[in-house]
Design a protein that fits this description.
Blueprint lengths: L1 H20 L3 E3 L2 E3 L3 H39 L7 H39 L2 H10 L20 H7 L1 H6 L1 H7 L5 H15 L2 H9 L2 H11 L3 H14 L3 H9 L2 H11 L3 H14 L6 H6 L2 H8 L5 H23 L8 H4 L3 H7 L5 H15 L5 H6 L2 H11 L3 H13 L1 H9 L5
Antiparallel strand pairs: 1-2
InterPro entries: ARM-like, ARM-type_fold, Armadillo, Vac8
Keywords: Coiled coil, Lipoprotein, Membrane, Repeat, Vacuole
Membrane topology: Lipid-anchor
Length: about 425
Amino acid sequence: MDYMESIKKLEEKWVLNQQKHGENGVINGTYSKEGHVGSVSDEVSEVKMLLQNEINLRKAAEEEINILRNQLAGFMPSEAGGDADTVKLQRLLEDETRQKKRLEEEVMILKSQLSQLALEADPTRRLDRSRSGNGFTGVDYLSHVRHSPLKDNGQRSSITNLHEQVGLQKIFSLLESEDPNVRIHAVKVVANLAAEEANQERIVEAGGLTSLLMLLRSWEDETVRRVAAGAIANLAMNEANQEFIMAQGGISLLAMTAADAEDPQTLRMVAGAIANLCGNDKLQMSLRSEGGIKALLQMARCRHPDVLSQVARGIANFAKCESRACTHGTKAGRSILIEDGALPWIVQNANNEASLIRRHTELALCHLAQHEVNAKDMISGGALWELVRISRDCSREDIRTLARRTLTSSSVFQSELQRLRIDL
């Protein structure tokens, strides 16, 4: 009855969504009687039927377990062949218990699918997800991977409906399921929940971040790793979570995932997670020693624009933190980025056609140039020409101003500009 009540509530929410956005599907900005919302209705009906079948199976399994238990309780060991029969009954009971557990997992998965279908029934939600792309876009060079907010409280409540009904601990237990399909679906549910800031604290407190890191450590399946890395990227928006990820060896796990990945979207998720960590001043040395910076530069070879924008954002974050440390006197010497060979890539992409990549790399150059100790390397590496271009042609006034101020405040840059007879 609890399951059927949940279905009823989800169906009522779906009907409300359908009434709110019209009974017809939205196709290319026009309304059609045979649109996507109608197909979702069919899917909801199909999942409802599957769920009912699983509930019936579970009920039958429970009845059979009870019968076996009664038989076992009434069995007399003194009868002939008693020991053998007892062992046989115990094995049957164990088999039925395993079957019950499997059915419970399937019921939980079907409930989550039903919740997701209710969400997807809303065309505005679907369009919003297509713009944001798997939970984050990387539109800010600061420490956050941003995701588009849901449109209303109804959608927020729908997306959290599953963990409120089932409980986070049970969802996390599915991450260790022997069934790969159950495991993959469970990590998708966790990632979906992690995309909402309101859920992140509860996920971490319940051990979800530890479970996600375990998936990177234990499983070779790239689909599982990709979705787990995306969830970690969203959880890494919080400073306390960033330090927890580092303490659990998460930087090296992300670097290992990047090295093994073949799908650009896996690299995008991993690069997004590392880029968030690069915005934390306390993690600078760990990012270098545990392979985070090296992993970013290796992922840059992918050439996929989504991956490159996350790599560039991570480098800009790291350069900003490094510049701040130099200003506060907590760091001396050349930039780690320069020492690790990132400068040629930064210079090469400072005039990239993609605006996000260009803006991140322009900012990275400006941050690196703010300290005299980097000036000679930047001149020999061709960065001075890019700084001059940025000071003149950058579409953003704040970056133009930063580049000009950086060039005029550096005696090394000023001497080289005078030698080349270049006026700002």
